[in-house]
Amino acid sequence: MPRPPDLVDSLAATWRTNNRVTVFLLQNIPPELWSARIPGAAHRTVRMIAGHIHNARCMWIKMLGRGHGIAPPMSVARQRVTRAQLIPALQRSSRGIIQLLELGAARGGRLPLIPWLNIPPDIAHFLAYFVAHEGHHRGQIMLVARQVGCRLPAGVTAGVWQWSRRAKEARGKA
After folding, report:
1. Looking at the domain assignment, is residue 103 inside a domain?
2. Is the dihedral of CA 8, 168, 84, 144 positive or negative?
3. What is the structure's pLDDT at 5?
4. Which structural domain range is residue 132 located in?
5. Is the dihedral of CA 32, 34, 150, 154 positive or negative?
6. Buried b vs exposed e over 142-168: b needs ≥16 C-beta within 10 Å?
7. Residues 8-57: pLDDT tens digits?
8. Most buried residue, 105, 111, 115, 152, by most Cβ within 10 Å?
């Protein structure tokens, strides 16, 4: 009987695939969508949603990694960040999330407790929370594209669901 995969390796690979899906979407949206205003939220743009994804990762890395040798990446200025700046930033914050998963694994599968932790502190819940968070924002971006008349090509909308392909792309990348 084959040996089951290492849990931490599997969780990290799952995260890398999620990150690749997020990056794939952001790399493939039309340039005019980047600065599109969100209907019903005139002061928010797609750029700001994309920047929020990275900044949320940074916040959690800072809170949970503090005191454990995990340095949080720099946040981005959501109102001004360019795609060329955000994609490498997402790669850095992705590595930080993987470090948190590894930290949790080294602590018996549990992350450090912080006073207001709104999710169970085990690494499986942590990963599910972040995948759901980013899936929510990817969906927002795709919906905004439709709302502002900037329909995404079928290869992009279908591409966010091609997790096997995105996993192959993500191998060896954080």
Report:
1. yes
2. negative
3. 67
4. 13-170
5. positive
6. bebbeeeeeebeeebeebbeeeeebbe
7. 899 999 999 999 999 999 999 999 999 999 999 989 999 999 999 999 99
8. 111
Per the domain annotation, does 94 fall within a domain?
A: yes
In the block, which residue shows the tokens 């993987």? 98
Number of structural domains, the chain?
Answer: 1
Three-state secondary-structure class, residue 37: strand
CA–CA distance from 5 to each of 9, 11, 23, 150, 174 (Å)?
Answer: 7, 10, 26, 42, 19
Q: Extract the tokens encoding 84.
A: 């060329």
The answer, yes or no, to whether residue 81 has pLDDT greater than 80, is yes
Q: What is the CATH number of the domain that holds 166?
A: 1.20.120.450
Q: Give the residue among 100, 68, 84, 69 at the shortest CA–CA distance from 31.
A: 84
